């Protein structure tokens, strides 16, 4: 099973463009994106994450660069989650659940 998962990871990495592999996917970028999608504004996401709005904007820009596509449609005064963004948000939610699960599970005998 682990070999299968490892093989899938290798296939995923092999299909990435040079631009995508130059900068690895950053968990904090994903966390900012998911929070922004849920709160609807850069300011609201920044408040929730206890960072500056510039940090949220920078992390969104980095995520979109690494992914190679926009996850929001930019309007004059709003960011609207687009179809690609909705799909990315579903993946990000799975990553968040996996991270929570990983933190909650302790091996037997570990306090």
Number of extended strands: 2
Percent range of helical residues = 55-70%
SSE string, helix = H, strand = E?
A: HHHHHEEH
CATH class type: Mainly Alpha
Q: Average the pLDDT over all residues and give the rounded result.
A: 83
Identify the CATH architecture: Orthogonal Bundle
The largest β sheet comes out as:
2 strands, antiparallel
Number of spatially distinct domains: 1
The whole-angstrom Rg is 16 Å
CATH topology value: Arc Repressor Mutant, subunit A
Which shape, going by the Cα principal axes? globular
Strand order of the largest sheet: 1-2
Please give a structural write-up.
The longest helix has 22 residues, at 83-104. The protein has one domain (23-103): Arc Repressor Mutant, subunit A, CATH 1.10.10.10. It has six helices and two strands. 15% of the residues are buried. The protein is mainly alpha-helical. The protein is globular. β1 (72-75) and β2 (78-81) form a beta hairpin. Strands 1-2 form a two-stranded antiparallel ribbon.
